[in-house]
């Protein structure tokens, strides 16, 4: 056989083995998807080990091929791969693009070789349907981005994207697209990217229409997206829009939780006084409940839709814009409202001046009130039937990472045990306020770091809030020093270890916030 003929056989063999590898990878992907998303076995079984043996046997014969026999073997293997491809594509038709996205979202490490093999499988078969193009879009996008540790991603350089795409696009017949059409598509993508990056909130992005226009544009482009000059630009735009969506969604998800809690509190207050609720408010709360149900179902099934999040936001805004949740606080009894004095503490304190009623032990300024309320609400959920040492490990309290003595201090103040204007009373109040400030500072340290890494415009205001926390920590530390000195002077050493633990935990939170506050550009409050 001539050298030319041998070269042709080798090239044909390489193409067949490449097809076999991409089918094997795709088969493994199907097995994983059915196992983890459907909890069932893949509906087809293919004997790849036997096929691999046939390829190995053929490879060993290529050095001295028998022309007729080698050609028949390759034709047979090509027919086998065609049949397997049809079986795999029939199963793939059952899988929506959203399921492919969910499957790869669950993978911590996404192997570039796996993505390339699956893309090759799709390109080898029919790729004209909308679902297949959507799946290729998802896979190409994964290929064009570099995951980061904060669940975000960076887009690869243009030349790097082109290097990855070139061997893949060579599998396709040449795409005839005019230069003018390429310029129009490129400009349209640039305009959409600019519009999305200019959005300052999730609501603005979700309701603005840019995302829908981007999706419509990709649908109209169809297979033209696979053109070598268009696909890299499309992928850069997709990654940029995807990252902006994720950034705004992180802020919105936090805001949705906070606003949902406000409306839940309103519902809780209204449950005891239904006569206060107007027909308009009842209708709004029903709309909110329906939107909340759809939103929760979407999160539970990992299929949360943008419209469901937007409807929940609109329902919340409608309630919060027309009804001030705090307007009912003076009407409804709220046992754990920090401004509410426990019955036993409501009577005049014998130590207080005649005619003076002491303030609530949980009265705090705006800086700590929210976090004091968190502690009290969690304590209400836990109940008071468990010792403080056990209560701190309950799921309702565990996330707050309280000390047992801090839980005990809250309970004593709720029961009105330490008389006001006493050392025991001031010590208990100090422990509660120090715990609230510690929780606040830990949250702020995480938020400052997150906003800095994202380059968010909200960083400056968060740094300013952190400055206030640092100032308050200095003040509370001075109160700790006074309480400790007084205990040593009086020889009251029973509570010293508790005081030292709470003080040092406050200082640790303080130092952590101060360091990151200083590093991220905050102005020192001292």
Q: Whole-Å distance between the termini?
A: 88 Å
Contiguous low-pLDDT stretches (5 residues minimum) are 326-359
**If helices are DSSP runs of H or I spanning 4 or more residues, what is the number of helices?**
21
Give Rg in angstroms. 32 Å
Strand content: under 5%
Instruction: Give the overall pLDDT as a whole number.
Output: 84
Helix content bin = over 70%
What oligomeric state is this?
Answer: single chain
Please write the string of helix (H) and strand (E) elements.
Answer: HHHHHHEEHHHHHHHHHHHHHHH
What is the general shape? elongated
- How many strands appear in the DSSP assignment? 2
The side-by-side strand order for the widest beta sheet comes to: 1-2
> Which structural class matches the secondary elements?
mainly alpha
Which keywords apply here?
two-stranded antiparallel sheet; 21 helices; 2 strands
Topology of helices and strands:
Elements: H1 3-37, H2 48-61, H3 67-92, H4 97-106, H5 112-124, H6 130-144, E1 145-147, E2 153-155, H7 158-169, H8 179-197, H9 202-208, H10 210-221, H11 231-272, H12 279-300, H13 306-322, H14 343-346, H15 369-382, H16 388-391, H17 395-398, H18 404-414, H19 423-454, H20 459-490, H21 496-519
Antiparallel strand pairs: 1-2
Helix pairs in contact: 1-2, 1-3, 1-5, 2-3, 4-6, 5-6, 6-11, 8-10, 8-11, 9-13, 11-13, 12-13, 15-19, 18-19, 19-20, 19-21, 20-21
